[in-house]
Each structure stands twice: as structure tokens, then as C-alpha cells.
Amino acid sequence: MNHQPGNILSYPEDLTEQENPFISPTAKDAQSPPVGPFAQQEFELSDFSDFTYTLTKEKVTAEEASTEKDWNVGGTLKGGGNVAGLVKVSVEVSGDYKNSSLTNTKTSVGDTTKLAAILGGIDESFGETAYTVKPFAYWNESAALVLDYAVSPGIAPPGSPRTWWQQMYGKKPDVTLKLPRLLDYEKQAGISSDSARFISPGVQVFRGPCAPNDPRVPTTEYAAPGVPLCLRAQVENYSLKDQPAGVAVEFFDADPDVGGVSIGKISNLGAIPARGSQFAYLDWTPDARYAGGAPRFFAKVDSDGVADEVHEDNNKGYRSHRIVAVTSVAPRAPEDVEVDLSPGRTLDIQWSDPLGPVQPTGHDWRVVAYPEDGSSPLEKLVPGGQTATSFPDVAPGRYRVAVFSISGGTESPASHPSEPIDVVTEAPSAPSNVTGTPETSRSVCSGIRPPPPVGRRSTVTGSASSGSRAKPSRRLRSTPR
Predict the structure, then answer these.
(1) Number of Cβ atoms within 10 Å of the Cβ of 431
(2) Which DSSP string corresponds to 32-85?
(3) Rounded to 5°, angle at Cα 335 from 329 and 337
(4) Residue 158 CB neighbour total at 10 angstroms
(5) Contact present, 253 and 261 (Cβ < 8 Å)
(6) What is the pLDDT of residues 185-226, one digit of tens each?
(7) Strands 87-93 and 103-108: what pairing?
(8) Cα(399)–Cα(414) distance, rounded to whole angstroms?
(9) Which band of pLDDT confidence, cut at 50, 70 and 90, is reported for residue 441?
(10) CA separation, residue 465 to residues 55, 60, 71, 205 (Å)
(11) What per-residue confidence (pLDDT) applies to 207?
């Protein structure tokens, strides 16, 4: 996903392949030029708008785009099958029939294939929040037919009063990473882990030394201790204001707010234009402490805190990458850190140590509970033979816990943190002649986000059979936050 649902300034501005890296151009036949995006339309969303966009086979063929897309998938498939009961996938073996051969799968747009999106109105009580949406379709490399959107916020002409967009996002930049699920957790939308909000497709891992503008595909192979890696972060500017050069980007071996240690820093990133991006690279080699785990490599934008920007809660993101196991002895981070709250405001913590055989003899665990408000963490040492401990009578607040293995002067990277746990003040018992319970105070978070976007990308794969109809549709209504 190349945008952040809930933030329309993260969507591409236009339909070019440079703005939309997932586009895989196709041609209707060998004599025709390849076509990238097709079936474009344009709608201006306002308070009373109500549009429906549909993609049909007629719109595909009208723009000389291909109605079929071939793609290769590892392994061997036999026959055909249905995908979600909507489309039929036909499969044929390419070359000699062997278990190791690649199969050639063809996805087709049939007469009944249809993608639809309903574009509702937006709340203009905030001001002039109207924006233009350009739905378009394309094939990607996996033979998925994708319905996507390019978005342009309303901009007033010179001399006219500024729109809401210019007032809110025309004064400061907003440097960040691609965080497709950042807003999911606060909406409780199909996400059960707080850490998942910060998974970023913009953080990538390459095998070997870094090279600017490197065309390599990020490695999916397990890295090995002692083998150089290149970490790359694509830094975005989701604003209408340019970000001057000089922002720092720092890489960490775990969440920097929960025990992550800096492994390198880029101190002077180049300028980032409005709604543009810039890459930061770091050469780094893992050692034996990372072996057998899947560290989360974090990038933190503006780690020095010098940028004056719209949001400060969207500056970190990560990608997990597996490191192969080795038999050399070194302190290794444990797994599965879990926290429960028991009476007396006690944090009960437990973890597992699947890497026990290669932990140093006589190692200890360092257990740290990090308050979300940034105050001093709680910490204790636990003998290596234990996998549980507790912190009694902790102050009210929200905590996440990480565990480290420590031996002599060497410490493992932080474990993946526990899910956040809230500790609240226990209400005193009411006198016998008083009924009811004390009123609970509520905290209010303020901030500004762009109106939510026109919706998530819709995809359909396969070829529609004569008796089926593929109709992913969505009623979309945008409201400024």
C-alpha cells in the first residue's frame, strides 16, 4: 500500500507510474504500446457530493488496456480454482512439469467483472475542505486488478481567502514514514496490536552495502550475523509546505521508545518537497546477539526534534527482518513478553526463552517497564533461570515492558515490547450512606488530521466466470478530523 488511509495528503497527486510504483503496464496485444493506469475519472468532493465510480470491461478496452495479465508464482498448481467465490483462476504449467517449475497464472477481466466505489460528501463545517478525487485502475505485478485514487486538495487562487487545507497544511511540513495502519488502532479497525500501527513499507532491508538510487528489490532472505545489510527509509512529507534540508533520520534495533538502541544516524537529509519524499540509507552489520530473532528495524524521522511540523506522533516506523540462528554464545532477547495487572496496581510479567541453549551461562534478565508519558522507567534484574517477575504498586499510567538478556558488560537488543497496559487509580470505597461511584476523569487528545480519504484500495484477482459477478464496493464518506 502506497498511502495512509485516513490522510488524503498521503495519496498520489497524479496517475504517473513514478507516483504509483505498483503499476505494471500491460498491452492489449504485441503490436500495441503498454498502458499503465486506465479508466480515469475525476470528481470534486464537497458537502453535498454523491458520486459512484464503476470499472467495467468496457472501460478497460476503451483505453486500449489489456483485459488479461500474466504472472509467475513459485511452486506448481494444478487445474483451476475459485477465489472468494467471485472470480475463476485458470492455471497452466509453463515448461516441463516439475515440482520446481514456475507456473504461469493468467488473470482476466470478464464481461461481468466490476469494481465500484461510492464517493460520498465531506463535512465542510470545518471550512473549505473540498478536494478532487481521480479514481483509476491498473494491473500490478501480482496480476491484481487494482482500483486506486489520486487526490488533490482544494487550493485557492492568488488573492483569494485560503482554504482549510492551506490554513492547516500550508504553514508547516509534516515529515513522516509510510504508516498504512497508523490510524487503525484508534478506530479499532481490524487491528489487535498497538505495534502494528508502526509497520512501514517505507523501511526496507537490502543485502550488501548501500548504493544511492539502488534498483535492488528488498531481500526476503534471512540475514546472517556478520553479513552487511543496507537499511533504507523513505521519508515522506504529507503537507503542502516544503521541508528544508537538515532533518535527521536515526535507525534503531528496536522501538526507540521501548529500549531500542541507535545503530546509526543520517544527520542531514536533503530537502523534501511538499507531498514528496526523500531516501535515507544506513550501512549496518548485525552481530551474534541478533541471531535467531526477527528484530524490528526502526527508522525515526526528525530524531533530533528540530523540525517544526504539523504532527509529532507519526515519526517512527519499522520493518521486521529475520536473522538466521547460529550456535555461538551471546545474550539474546527473549520472546512473547506478556503483562497482566493484578490488585494493588501490580504488573505481572512473564516471557519465554526459546534461545536458552545459546544464552551465556549465568546471564541475567533486565526487565524494564516504560511509562508512555516519558517519565523514568521501572527496572529490575532477574536471574536467568526465571521467566517471570512483577512490579508492585506502580503509579497510574500506560506501560509497555521489554526484557533484555545481560551477561557481563554485554546486553542483548530489546525484546519485542508487550502490549500496552493501563494502570488506573483504584477508586476508594464509598461510605455506607452514599450511593454511586466517583466520576472518572477523561483525557482529551487534540490534533488535526486531513479529512479521511476516499477509501482503501480495492482489488480483484482472477477471471470472472460467466455465472459470477465481482462487485467490491464501498460507501465512502469523508469527514475532517
Answers:
(1) 7
(2) SPPB-SBS---EEE-TT--EEEEE-HHHHHHTT--SEEEEEESS---SEEEETT
(3) 135
(4) 4
(5) yes
(6) 555 555 668 888 899 999 999 888 888 776 667 766 778 899
(7) antiparallel
(8) 15
(9) very low
(10) 17, 17, 19, 40
(11) 87
**Ranges assigned E (strand) in 427-466:** 458-461
What's at 164, amino acid-wise?
Answer: W
- 313: which DSSP letter? S
Higher pLDDT, 375 or 42: 375
DSSP 74-88: SS---SEEEETTTEE
Nearest CA among 172, 199, 145, 150 for reference residue 17: 150
Q: How many residues does the chain have?
A: 481
> What is the rounded distance in angstroms from the CA atom of residue 301 to the CA atom of residue 233?
9
Helix (H) or strand (E) holding 167: helix 164-169
The CA radius of gyration of the chain, in Å to the nearest whole number, is: 26
- Nearby residues of 375 by Cβ (< 8 Å), 6 or more positions away: 395, 397
DSSP codes, 183-201: THHHHT-S---GGGGGB-T
CA-to-CA dists, residue 7 to 3, 225, 235, 258, angstroms: 8, 39, 16, 27
Q: What is the mean pLDDT of residues 400-408?
A: 95
**pLDDT single digits (tens) 264-316:** 999 989 999 999 999 999 999 999 999 988 999 999 999 998 899 998 889 99
> Which three three-digit cell numbers place residue 372?
508512555
Measured distance CA(138)–CA(118) in Å, rounded: 19
The overall longest dimension of the chain from CA atoms, in Å, is 89
- Please tell me the distance from the alpha carbon of residue 418 to that of residue 328, in angstroms, as a whole number: 27
Q: Quick check: helix, strand or coil at residue 382?
A: strand
What pLDDT does 446 receive? 34
Interstrand relation of 87-93 and 80-83 (parallel, antiparallel or unpaired): antiparallel
Amino acid of residue 443: S
**Beta-sheet strand order (sheet of 475-478):** 51-55, 115-122, 475-478
Question: Residue 358, SS3?
Answer: helix
Q: pLDDT at position 404, please?
A: 96
Whether residue 388 contacts residue 350, with contact meaning beta carbons closer than 8 Å, is answered with: yes
Point out which residues pair with 380 in neighbouring strands.
367
pTM, rounded to two decimals: 0.73
User: Cell digits for 178?
Assistant: 509510510
